[in-house]
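User: Can you help me understand a structure? I only have the sequence.
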Amino acid sequence: MIKTLAAQVGEYKRASFLTPMFMILEVVMEMIIPLLMASIIDDGVEKGDIHHIVAIGIFMIIAAGFGLFCGVMGGVFGAKASAGFAKNLRKAMFERIQTFSFSNIDRFSSASLITRMTTDVTNLQNAYQMILRMCFRAPLSLICAMAMSFYVNVRLASIYLVAVIILGIFLSLIVANAMKYFTEMFQKYDELNASVQENVSAIRVVKAYVREDYEKTRFQKACDGLYRLSCRAERVVALNAPLMMMAIYSCMLLISWMGAKMIIQSILTTGELMMLLTYCMNILMNLMMLSMVFVMLTLSQASARRIGEVLNEEPDIVNPENPVYEVENGEIIFDHVTFRYNENSEKPVLNDINLTIHSGETIGIIGGTGSSKSSLVNLISRLYDVSGGCLKVGGRDVREYDIETIRNAVSVVLQKNVLFSGTILENLRWGDKNASREDCIRACKLACADEFIDKLPDGYDTYIEQGGSNVSGGQRQRLCIARALLKHPKILILDDSTSAVDTATEARIRKAFREEIPDTTKLIIAQRVSSVQDSDRILVMENGEINGFGTHEELMESNEIYRDVYESQTRGDEPGGKNGPTDQAGQEGKEV
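Assistant: Let's start by predicting it. Here is the structure, written out as tokens:
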């Protein structure tokens, strides 16, 4: 884990090296100043030597000034190194996430990934700055001050040594107890972020069902859980300050009392006592700094582990050694394909699928909820890999293709249509970044999106809010279809992508597909039988298996599921009759 994180220091190695160097120089100046002060008192004040006082005073000012400069430069380079480290961590995590397959992403919740890229990275940034500055400065200063104290008077310096040992034991206990609370806190952060994310993304549903009070209560529970853990952790950490202050004042009292007696006995000079008191404060303050470093490292340890999990996560789907960079056509062959989302699950999501789809065909896909229609088409663009069997596109196993090549050859309009903040043209060019305005307009005409775009005041330059919140569901679907068409795909997959479009517009879209992209293989998952009725062939799915495959007429004769769904959607409902409410409820599992 340390090696993984250290690799993200990158171009900030120089700043990371200069920070402790300046900290060391600052410590050297701090060690010199008490010696000069003792010299002023013993050789200047007590002997009345003004010249000596002035000369040593000038040296003290120079040493203090240089120490101040080193401290400032250490802070500047430390901030630069830690901020750069955090920047590289976020960049590396984001780039890593982009390589993940759907199965990788399924292992992390989106709220957890957000927490890792924000709170966890900030914790590591603060810890890294503390390491560069305090982990070098505090131990060195403490050791030097201790050595100088023993050089001046072994008996009085032993007081420091005993205090340091006792404090070290107590600080170890504090850190050990605080660690378990900090680990739990990050889980609560994930829950809190999940609550906020879910509420914001579904705010329309919340308001439609007047569930604001429920959401407030739910959020308050998440906040309270985090608050309680934070308080427990802080109560443990808070013990650090009183222990340190008790040690500082106890040492100062003992040294003052014993030092005064030694001065009377002429064993110790006044200047040496002042020097020991200065070193006393230095030793114990640096010990306090070290305790803060330990607390910060304890807090960041959990963050480092969580960030390391993302950086070390290996993508499940990678390029083969010698990938194929061209998809010949849109032919699709499922050869005894089995698929599981979890390799340890007993029952497969798709079981022994055998299916051949010719290039240029239009295939309708229909089936009940949970029949694995979306899972089937997700395998084609290699969003997931098959667990068993072989899936071929254009005559080759999809695992032989370069990942970008196969995904560029397959355009997918998913159930959840997503638009990004930006103009309509910018959203359309996700399909082809080099598409001209004319290309975008043509794609929108095929998707029947031009009819509402032309009515907008800014037309194709209309700004789309985040998530497409300022356009309707049907408009959003048509824009996503147009975006998919701009890829000029070999295979076009519409996963329930016209559910919010009226039947007349949907019919025009299907007609445009037949006439304008006849060579593209089209897979249409739909809720309405009318959406797939005129397809070349229709696939009926049930419980992850193929229940029927043929034309509309063939399925009406041979497939009971298809016939029941068709009749339930086309016959008028009669209260209490076969197609009344009772029968409709019975069909719920068969309808899409």
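Now, to help you interpret it: Residues 572-592 have pLDDT under 50 and may be disordered. The two ends are 47 Å apart (CA to CA). Let me know which part you'd like to focus on.
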